[in-house]
Amino acid sequence: MVVLHVAYREERERKYKAKHGEETRLYDNPGQKHGGLWWTYLMSLFLKTAFEVTFLYMLHYIYDTFRLPRKVQCDVSPCPNLVDCYIARPTEKTVFTYFMVGASVMCIILNLCEIFYLIVARVVTMKQRGSVHTNTCAKIESKALKLHSLTELESVRF
What we know:
Blueprint: H1 2-20, H2 36-63, E1 71-74, E2 83-86, H3 90-157
Antiparallel strand pairs: 1-2
C-alpha cells in the first residue's frame, strides 16, 4: 500500500512538473511520511497486525493449542465409524508451529511499537507546531498592539 502511495505521489509530481515547469514542486519530498502517506502507512500497520492476530487465532482454534497431537480421531466420510488418524512427524510440525507462532508474536509486538511510536511522534510534532503557532500569534498581536498604541499617540499629538 505504501509503495503504491509513494508511486502515486511521484507520478503526480512528474505531471505537475510537466505542466508548470521543472523548477516547481508539488511536494517537498514525495517519500516523506506526512499527510496521506502517514495515514496509509499507519493503516497498513493496523492491517498487518490484524492479519497476524487472525491467523494466530485460527491456528489456535483449529488445534485447540499450538501443539499438534500425534493421533486424531475422526469420523468424517468416507470413514464409516470413528477412526484413529496419525499425524506424520508431529514433533517436527510442533517445533515449526512454535517457531511460526514466535515469529508472528514478534511481528505483532514490533508493529504495535511502531504504531505507538508514529502516533506519539505525530502528537509531539503537532504540539510543537501548535506552541510555535501560538508564540507567533502572540508576537504578531503584541506588534499590532504596539503599532496601534503608537498610532493613537501620534493622533493625540496632532
